[in-house]
């Protein structure tokens, strides 16, 4: 394996990012369920707000634990680039969640799990397709955050000059 590829997929960073992304996924699933229930929105309309709630949690956890960027002193720059990458990945999450859900939903009834001693039913079909979308987002996020967000690429400086 080449040095560049080995550096991109080193076990320590990949494991740390997987743990951080797992926590973010839990936040996203919980937020999506609450948004659907509290605001009475559709599954499709709950995905992006839940994703962006998880994005806030994910930024700080990723900066602190995943890519050794704790001491970088470039938090504003990293946050700007993180939001760019995460917005792109948010679209990936939405597409790879809603398209499979519509495909499955149009052919089969949704599968529900009723929480014992509760009135809450969990839509397993929606959770499965959301996790599917998160998987694709995980891949794009990991690669882009590792190679762009938490690296000094000059992009942020060029963008600031463009805005002036």
TrEMBL record:
Residue stretches making up the GtrA/DPMS transmembrane domain: 17-150
Q: Where in the cell is it found?
A: Membrane
Report the InterPro entries cross-referenced here: GtrA_DPMS_TM (IPR007267)
Q: Which UniProt keywords apply?
A: Membrane, Transmembrane, Transmembrane helix
Give the matching PROSITE patterns: PROKAR_LIPOPROTEIN
Identify its membrane topology class: Multi-pass membrane protein
State the Pfam families in the record: GtrA_DPMS_TM
Question: Is Ribosomal protein given among the entry's keywords?
Answer: no
Annotated signal sequence is none
The protein, known as: GtrA family protein
């Amino acid at each position: 394996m080449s040095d560049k590829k080995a550096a991109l997929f080193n076990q320590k960073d990949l494991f740390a990012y997987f743990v951080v992304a797992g926590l973010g996924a839990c936040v996203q699933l919980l937020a999506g369920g609450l948004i659907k229930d509290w605001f009475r929105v559709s599954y499709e309309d709950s995905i992006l707000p839940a994703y962006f709630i998880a994005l806030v949690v994910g930024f700080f956890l990723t900066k602190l634990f995943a890519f050794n960027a704790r001491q970088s002193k470039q938090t504003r720059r990293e946050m700007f680039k993180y939001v760019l990458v995460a917005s792109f990945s948010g679209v990936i999450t939405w597409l790879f969640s809603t398209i499979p859900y519509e495909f499955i939903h149009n052919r089969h009834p949704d599968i529900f799990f009723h929480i014992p001693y509760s009135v809450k039913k969990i839509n397993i079909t929606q959770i499965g397709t959301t996790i599917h979308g998160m998987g694709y987002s995980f891949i794009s996020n990991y690669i882009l955050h590792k190679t762009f967000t938490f690296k000094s690429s000059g992009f942020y400086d060029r963008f600031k000059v463009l805005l002036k």
